[in-house]
Amino acid sequence: MRRPTLTGALATLAMLVPAVLLGAPAAHADPISQTSGFYVNPNSSPAAWAAANPGDGRAAAIRTSIAQKPMASWFGNWSGDINGAVGRYVGAADAVDKLPLLVAYNLPGRDACGGHSGGGAGSVAAYDSWIASFAAAIGNRPAVVILEPDSLGDFNCMSQTQINERAGMLSRALGQFRSKAPHTWAYLDAGNSGWVDAATMAQRLNTAGVSGAHGFALNVSNYFTTGENSNYGNRVANELRRFGYSKPFVIDTSRNGNGSNGQWCNPSGRRLGTPTQMGGGAEMLLWLKTPGESDGNCGVGGGSSAGQFLPEVAYKMIYGY
């Protein structure tokens, strides 16, 4: 990774961090100025599918419009040795001076209320150990990590004890990134503009330790427009001021080009959104969910499992039908 001068890093950070960030991180912790753009994973599921199916009429469009764009890679209980998996991914990005996007998705009782992406670590202690290894694998290399989608959006099926345990795990996880991955910007998931009111989400974020995160993330794996999420994010950031601080936010724009039709699980007629970039109504617009990967056995992805790449869904998402 590039090591900027202090003056250059401060100038870059001043341009990139919006006014809602009170108490900006030290210049040396900025992963943007240490890299030359976002990492494109050559082994993503759409890239692998296009490479394996060169004669398919959809392959060229999927390769150009999806596989060659910077997207996040997700890590969970399917990743095997998490230290090795994260270390290899971040190392590959660092070798080409690019910034990797990672999603940590392994809380016990993951997606407990949604029901399509269940699983996660087997216990609180197992999760604490897993996320510590995750952070240690990044080490001093630059990275962006989105922490635990869905974790604060729906408490309806959880007891207060479970909620308290979850908040504790998230808070300790953020502490691991602060201590073991000093060049990582960690964002705590905060649902989306159509889920929980801003004041409630700010309360949940504060309880889960967002004061120790770089910021919060919106719209992960959902479809609400960038404008809707930008407005919501600014409201959440303003509500956080009640606790004496505020934070910037990022928005998942991977599938929000046509907005939401009110459905979240493989709805038809959705379209790619703005590719990964700095700014655009948030600190960053990021492709966090891989376009074409199923949300579960539902909608136009009927018969599939969560995370399975569906080329026909990906192809239709390019053109919005």
UniProtKB/TrEMBL annotation:
Substrate binds at W74, W195, N222, W264, K289, E293. Gene3D superfamilies: 1, 4-beta cellobiohydrolase. Coiled coil: none annotated. The keyword Disulfide bond applies. It is an enzyme of class 3 (hydrolase). Keywords: Carbohydrate metabolism, Cellulose degradation, Disulfide bond, Glycosidase, Hydrolase, Polysaccharide degradation, Signal. One of its GO terms (molecular function) is hydrolase activity, hydrolyzing O-glycosyl compounds. One of its GO terms (biological process) is cellulose catabolic process. This is Glucanase. It comes from Actinoplanes xinjiangensis. The lineage of its organism: Bacteria, Bacillati, Actinomycetota, Actinomycetes, Micromonosporales.
